[in-house]
Amino acid sequence: MIGVFDSGIGGLTLLHSLMRLMPHENYIYYADLDHVPYSYRSRDEIRELVEEAVLFLIEKGCDVVVLACNTATNVAVEYLRDKYEFPIVAIQPAVKVAADHSEDHNRILTCATPVTLSSERYLKLVKSLNIENRLDNLPLPKLVEFAEKGEFEGVLVEKYLLDEIGKKVTHEHHFIVLGCTHFTFYERLIESLFPKLTALDGNEGTARQVQRVLSELKPLKESGSGLVNFYESGRKAKDISKYAKLLAMLRLSS
To answer: Are residues 58 and 75 in the same domain?
Structure first.
């Protein structure tokens, strides 16, 4: 069984990629709705919340835990891997993909939460790729709030994207890295508002890594419909209709 953690609904975009790649596996999706968004919380508080959720997923029998939250990854993954022996796969902004597929003179725009963009882990990744001189960072914390309220289009959302991305993007930018799983819900909208930009996220690469890790632990299932159980801050979700609708929306847009 695969456990997927996110501060809210953002991780559904990664869950969607996982289910496409491994449709016969069973999943637990943990949304920390009591504490979303994480953007305005301290690193210590985020680390405690993530650890609590990860231990919950392990106790429920998950073989692999996936941090489908870039903020959680950048604050807590090293701490968790040092402390525990069970497999943890963590998403990361796809800046390497952008760097590998762009010319040296093209600029890259990374959008994420303020916590992710200022984290030591992210800054080390950028430095290792030697792209500091052509990378621009843009925090979009309000986009998480829009997503959690189910606002995926409309005047307010478009104005926010046009204002915030518009103040950073230039003709030199070819890629926009969506460094928060919530942002993937807006991938098509962003590309329609900024036609010269190609949006990238870390979902597909992370899903393939989960597949590799799980296959090393046990044979992957080749039959069965696969089940997903949803939990909200440790409680079994009473109404899963919103999750079903969001996953259906992702299937239609993919």
So the answer is: yes
44 membership: H or E segment, kind and range: helix 43-59
Number of domains in the chain: 2
> CA 61, 65, 68, 69 torsion: positive or negative?
positive
Instruction: Write the pLDDT tens digit of every residue in 50-93.
Output: 999 999 999 999 999 999 999 999 999 999 999 999 999 999 99
Active-site residue, selected from the candidate residues 49, 180, 207, 247: 180
Q: What is the pLDDT of residues 155-212, one digit of tens each?
A: 999 999 999 999 999 999 999 999 999 999 999 999 999 999 999 999 999 999 999 9
Active site residue 111: no
pTM of the entire predicted model = 0.94
4, 14, 69, 199: which one is catalytic? 69
Between CA 154 and CA 173 the distance in angstroms is 25
